[in-house]
Amino acid sequence: MEYQIPSSRTALLNDAGMLVPYLRTRLAALAPVALAPGPEAARAAGVLAPLYAVAGRPHLLFTVRSRDLSKHKGEISFPGGSRDPGDRSLDETALREAREEIGLDPAGVELLGPLPPVFAAVSNFVITPLVGWLGEGVPALTPNPAEVAEMIYAPLAALAEPSIYHSELWQRLDTAHLVHFYDFGAYRIWGATARMLHSLIELLPPA
Predict the structure, then answer these.
(1) Which of 10, 56, 88, 156 is most buried, by CB atoms within 10 Å?
(2) Considering the entire predicted model, what is its pTM?
(3) How many angstroms separate the CA atoms of 171 and 188, rounded?
(4) CB-hemisphere CA count at 13 Å for 92?
(5) Tell me, what's the pLDDT at 35?
């Protein structure tokens, strides 16, 4: 039977049983996006946007990066990193890095599909975000303290609340860039991670 796309944004934000097949369908239908990375050849990276449910309601996992890291210290991110020569795909990169950073077992992740890639100018990475479904219940994780200072467990409905979002137009090398911000409680999600989050939320029907 063909999957019927729900018309209600509110229903999707509050029912993982509806959201997961919806995202699987929408992500499969996304057209590939080509990026112009900049003056030097960019490195490839993969990150995992981990979705799970609590009492049926979808949540997203984020990490707060350790302040001992050389790049993006203290920033909020999805688990992930640079593609290793031995990685057969960016899917494998995202899952490997998630295991290394937060102790997430790849066997418990269903990859729903990729979001549009994001270019991070500061680190010269083209990042492919993979949306992963972890199932019902808060996952048992063992964050690596060398890389992760804190875990953030966020209801998707709260992240999609218009009142926590704003954007600003920033100039970089004479080019204007739209920068997204999500103020979730005490946390400010911005930069490449906010662009990924914005892409995910934009897949939902209008409010």
Answers:
(1) 156
(2) 0.91
(3) 20
(4) 7
(5) 59
